[in-house]
Amino acid sequence: MSAFKKALLYAGLEKEEIRELMPEARHENGRFVRIYALITAVVFILCLLASLIAGGQLEMNKPIYLSMIVISVVIYVNTKVTMKKHPKLSTLLAILYILSMYGYSFAVSLMHSDMQGTAAVAILVVMPCIFIYRPIYMIGLTVAMGALYCLLSMQIKTHSIAMLDVWNSLFFGAIAVLLSVYQMRVRFQEMLQKRRNRLLSETDLLTGVKNRNCFENNREYYPRLCKENVHCIYVDVNGLHELNDGQGHEMGDKMLQTVAGVLSERFSHENVYRIGGDEFVALCTDMSPDEIRSRIAETIREINEKGYSVSVGGAMQEKNELNMHDLLKEAEAYMYKDKRKYYEQFGHDRRRRASDVPPIKAPEQAGS
Questions:
Q1: 238 by DSSP, 3-state: which?
Q2: Are 113 and 157 a contacting pair, CB within 8 Å?
Q3: What is residue 358's three-state secondary structure?
Q4: Cα(214)–Cα(289) distance, rounded to whole angstroms?
Q5: Adjacent-strand bridge partners of 310
């Protein structure tokens, strides 16, 4: 019973896994809505042209075709204009698309009351499987639309044809429910596996922060994310090679994990990258130089308290003159300047006393 409930509510996954996957599901649904709306608009334009040429019973469908063309175009335009800024709208647009297709199939079937509702049955089977949602939602929508169609058919069509529609709706509706449960389970499982593979490819397994591959892929997104500026904090762990040689790689690994943990706390796990053996980068958007200085000072102090030391360089560029390659090089240059100063003062000692930490300058003043 528990497994059945889990399959209906969460497609066989855990509740938290479904929540984590929903942004990706919305993105996929938005893409599907845009594609399907465009295809639907083209198909109904062709149907409208066919009805104008052929006449007869097809001519009765012209208002429906026109309505579907308008609805499809509106949905398509909205996906192009609003989806990037408001991804949650994908849910509303997908539901609107599904309801419009149900509406079309019902209207066509009921207008031709002397015929079985093949269009309605076909839509009933297809609709639950084209978007990615928790199965219980699609089951509820399928049952509600099937019941509505049966009621309308019994009111408008002859008894014998209405009974055939009811039977077909029940039979194919049940198939649609089973297909939707299976499809959603498969598609969510695929999304989860892709997410895990992506996380593995983008995560430094030793420290848990993002790796250089992820940094190279992500760094050009920051100019789009920022409104005012981007800060780059370049961190090099002091004494890693000496610690590895003197006490073993296990102690060196512990040092790197400690530094990564502190950086993640101070600059957000999403913005911290290990880009080399003992080098880390943190990228921050729209923060003041004073706040950056404070966080760097806190980072150095906390790492010192844990028995380790880092050299740090910071740089900042305004949005209108932002070049991520130059920003990284600038921060790296200031880090090497701090590292030279560290070794001149402390040699290979892994720790600085809090009183020995050099003053943290604003990125635009660094190196002055």
A1: coil
A2: yes
A3: coil
A4: 26
A5: 237
Report in angstroms the alpha-carbon separations of 22 from 18, 29, 127, 324: 6, 10, 19, 31
Q: What are phi and psi of 36, to 5 degrees?
A: -65, -40
User: Which uninterrupted H or E stretch holds 316?
Assistant: strand 310-318
Structural domains of the chain, ranges and CATH numbers in brackets: 2-202 (no CATH), 212-356 (3.30.70.270)
Enclosing H/E stretch for 164: helix 159-202
What pLDDT, in 10s, does the model give residues 306-361? 999 999 999 999 988 899 999 999 999 999 999 888 877 766 554 444 344 444 44
Cβ contact 166:150 at 8 Å: yes
**Cβ–Cβ under 8 Å, residues 323 and 230:** no
- Given pLDDT bands bounded at 50, 70 and 90, which one contains residue 57? low
Angle between helices 2-10 and 15-54 (to 10 degrees): 50
Tokens of 176: 């649609």
**What's the CA gap between 196 and 194, in Å, rounded?**
5
- Using CA atoms, how far apart are residues 130 and 112, in angstroms rounded to an integer? 27
CA–CA gap between residue 202 and residue 95 (Å, rounded):
34
Q: Which long-range contacts (CB under 8 A, 24 or more apart) does 188-194 make?
A: 188/11, 188/12, 188/13, 188/18, 188/21, 188/25, 188/132, 189/11, 189/12, 189/13, 191/21, 191/24, 191/25, 191/28, 191/132, 192/13, 192/17, 192/21
* Distance in angstroms (rounded) separating the CA atoms of residues 186 and 191: 9
Rounded to two decimals, what is the model's pTM? 0.70
Secondary structure (3-state) at 274: strand
Q: In the chain, what is the greatest distance between 2 CA atoms, to the nearest angstrom?
A: 96
The kind and range of the H/E element at 284 are: strand 279-285
Segment 290-302, tens digit of pLDDT: 999 999 999 999 9
Q: Quote the CA–CA distance of 60 and 79 in Å, as a whole number.
A: 31
